[in-house]
Amino acid sequence: MAVVELPFGREKINVNIPDSRLNGLLISGAHSYQADGEEEELVRKAMEHPIHSPRLKELVKGKKSIVMIASDHTRPVPSRVITPAIIEEIKEGNPQAQLTILIATGFHRSTTREELIDKFGREIVDRTDVRFVVHESRKEEDMVFIGTLPSGGRLLINRIAAEADVLFSEGFIEPHFFAGFSGGRKSVLPGVSSGVTVMANHCSEFIDSPFARTGILEGNPIHRDMVYAAGKAKLSFIVNVVLDENKKVIKAYAGHFDEAHKEGCRFVDQLSGVDAIPADIVISTNGGYPLDQNIYQAVKGMTAAEATCNPGGVIIMAASCSDGHGGQSLYDTFARGEDKNAIMKRFLDTPRDKTVPDQWEAQILCRILLKYKVIMVTQAPREMICNMQMDYADSVEEAISMADHYLGKTDGKITVIPDGVSVIVRKRRLS
């Protein structure tokens, strides 16, 4: 009997799988990569040798309004590691600088003070020369129009970002299920953009594009809009990190928002690419806290399973979802009981300028549900899971039993993806 460890919330759970049924594990190389230095050292070295950019301390000299876009509570960015080095660098170039940290919530709920303390540490949150502002994408009065996206959507961003003398961002780079990769330009769109802009960029036409997939930048219409938005916002510098399975920094990139990001993406692409191991049953996770806080985010881990599950197979998603569904519109889309084919048709018939909140996540979930049975192992209420047209199980072992019953056999092969958001699953290349 094989024992597989899966991240679940802030804990780990062990799953027993018969040796004869375990088809294989899909694991990112980031989980075994040996960093060549301590976390803080890696960040500082990257900032001392920025890619296609002057150092941040040079950029902030003589500047008054200095704004850093930072990720929100749903991202595992180790801000308490990155931010001290950033503040130190800023103070070198501008000793009297006041830093505004704009929390990039995108279309998520607001980050609480307790979550800021958990993310940055109390010492930074309580500093008198640091001000925190949480972006609220639905507050129209906070937004400024700065241009038109290549897709035709209106580009409105947070006024604090638009009026900054120096705008830069921190973040992390990992595979992303429709933007290709996280990090870099994403701090502006969707990070600090208006909900109107996010919805134009996340339209059904773009989500349906075969290029809007994990690990793909070239030809990706969503990525194209994001790069344009970052340029128009005058994002002048980024500090992005790559993390291992324990959310520790193993690599850091700093410098020009696009060039430094591209270099980081190349590294992650090489590190995270895995060959699909097709199976009737695929078990995936969202890598534990904070990315598995809700069903909305858990869709990401499902897309990794989607890329290796046999047609008509079963996806078992282990995610704590302690914060519930994470998107009322996402929940309502399925809870009304509408047929999934009708849901998908409605999405695909929706024009770019008529996108509704959470449509993109619902569209991807619907795409998966149309092809696979999905069983959730979660702390979210059973009724919530069932209302969203998925099945609920108390344990992964129970989910496997349910999958066997659904498939009508007890010897179906099982592929496990211990961290579904950390891998780029590709079709196996024939030699």
TrEMBL record:
One of its GO terms (molecular function) is lactate racemase activity. Residues 8-215 form the LarA-like N-terminal domain. Residues 274-425 form the Lactate racemase C-terminal domain. InterPro entries: LarA-like, LarA-like_C, LarA-like_N, LarA_C, Ni_dep_LarA. NCBIfam families: Ni_dep_LarA (NF033504). PANTHER family: LAR_N DOMAIN-CONTAINING PROTEIN, LARA-LIKE N-TERMINAL DOMAIN-CONTAINING PROTEIN. This is Nickel-dependent lactate racemase. It comes from Anaerocolumna jejuensis DSM 15929. The lineage of its organism: Bacteria, Bacillati, Bacillota, Clostridia, Lachnospirales.
